[in-house]
Amino acid sequence: MPIHTILSGLESSRDAREALYKEFHRHPELSLQEFRTADRIEEELRASGIDEVLRIGRTGIVAILRNGDGPVVAMRGDIDALPMAERSGRDYAAEGATQVDEATGKETPVAHTCGHDMHIVCLLGATQAFHAHRGEWSGTFVAVFQPGEENAAGARAMVQAGIVDKVPRPDVYLGQHVLGSLPGGAVGIRSGPLFSAAASIEITLHGKGSHGSMPNLGVDPIVLGSAIVTRLQAIVAREVAPRETAVVTVGSFHSGTKSNIIPDSAVLQLNTRAFDKGVEKHLHEAIERIVRAECEAARSPKPPEFRYYDQYPLTENHDEPTARVRAAFDAYFGEDSVDMAPVPASEDFSVIPDAFGCPYTYWGLGGCADWKNAPGNHSPFFAPDIHPTLDRGVEAIVVAASPWLIKDK
After folding, report:
1. Which of 15, 107, 117, 201 is most buried, by the most CB atoms less than 10 A from its CB?
2. Closest CA to 169 of 147, 139, 149
3. Is this structure's pTM higher than 0.85?
4. Which of 311, 333, 368 is the C-terminal boundary of a domain?
5. How far is CA 190 from CA 134, 193, 305, 316, 339, in A?
6. Which helix or strand (DSSP H or E) is residue 290 part of?
7. What would the pLDDT profile of 353-404 be if each residue is shown by its tens digit?
8. Contact residues for 73 (Cβ-Cβ < 8 A; gap 6+)
9. Which domain holds residue 154?
10. Nearest CA to 27 among 84, 121, 77, 95?
11. Which of 284, 311, 338 is the last residue of a domain?
């Protein structure tokens, strides 16, 4: 069968892919600063004889395999790491890895604690397998190595850098993510909402400074902020229908410098999640309404200021391609093809297919044998099992692309 022929080199390439994975894992890089990573990806592609390799923006890489007439299938793998220290204890851990953050000018620890290094090597392996067995498929395979997923800026950066004009329009756009929440070796997919829409909001509250012994002469932004934090909890509890899913989290509250000084401002940082665009819109409107009303009630001397950032769109799998991929998964993986529940984490995956105006589907890849006790993505302890995950990730990409690229012979 063509799929098995395309994947016939998995065993012989396993050691090389493991070594490459460990190399990427030991050298994590921050979002939109993946310079070494991008260079290494390009080097690996060209060493495999793949000539049509494009740099899209500073660190985005696209490889295009044109192989006669047929559909265009694009597959995305994100490449950035997180600003945190790894504590997995693996012998290939990125202990002590740091990088200067261009945004702040400060040196920060960096680690691949979300699994994007696994995504890189799986996509490289699948691309190399398609390239080595061109006689088994027809059409065009596009490998998109996307930077900056962790700050929601990478997909937009590739769109702004002209990916839509430089790359053939896909008939379908595919993606996968290694997860600790699925059984090891399983692939999980579903139609409809898969990853939530998300946004972070920085709110600046204005008070009037005074001595702590004379609160009547000031407007206390700490009391104001406390009232807002409490009142915001009622949005999900009392304004969102029970059948819907929504999250409003206040993750940061900063104000003041000394116990006997009433400060003149406070800054709150919020995060919202929703699986419906209308619900997300309501959350943001309710937050602004409550904050403005509390400021007015507190006699705030200036209106509050709102800054939205790290905004992720809803990832909502299209029905037709999802059904085709699920059927291919069922046929190849059997019991390891499973239903995937919606995940309240968020992704910028859909930005590029939306820019192309093409359908997409996205699935989860189980990365831990002891998945019920596995740390979640973004934990300092997160490190998926190398085997069989590296093989399974390559297989999943080839199998998912097969309904479009492989015709019955």
Report:
1. 117
2. 139
3. yes
4. 311
5. 30, 8, 39, 9, 6
6. helix 277-297
7. 999 999 999 999 999 999 999 999 999 999 999 999 999 999 999 999 999 9
8. 139, 140, 141, 142, 170, 171, 172, 174, 401, 404, 405
9. 2-194+314-405
10. 95
11. 311
Average pLDDT over every residue of 40-62: 98
Only one residue has tokens 């790894």, namely: 86
Burial pattern 270-279, b for ≥16 Cβ within 10 A else e, equals: bbbbbbbeeb
Same domain, 49 and 180: yes
Assign residue 244 the CATH number of its domain.
Answer: 3.30.70.360
3-state secondary structure of 351: helix
Choose among 407, 371, 341, 338: nearest CA to 69.
407
Cα–Cα distances in angstroms (integers) from residue 47 to residues 43, 68, 131, 133, 400, in the given order: 6, 22, 12, 16, 25
CA atoms within 13 Å, Cβ hemisphere of 372: 0
What does the block give as tokens for 194? 């898969």
Spatial CA neighbour of 316 closest among 133, 142, 178, 189: 189
Q: Write out pLDDT tens, residues 136-191.
A: 999 999 999 999 999 999 999 999 999 999 999 999 999 999 999 999 999 999 99
**Sequence letter at residue 155:** A
Which contacts qualify for 239-243: CB closer than 8 Å, 24 or more apart?
239/282, 239/286, 240/279, 240/282, 240/283
Q: How far is Cα 275 from Cα 164, in angstroms, rounded to an integer?
A: 27
Q: Do strands 187-189 and 107-109 pair parallel, antiparallel, or not at all (unpaired)?
A: unpaired
Tokens (6 digits) for 175: 């993606």
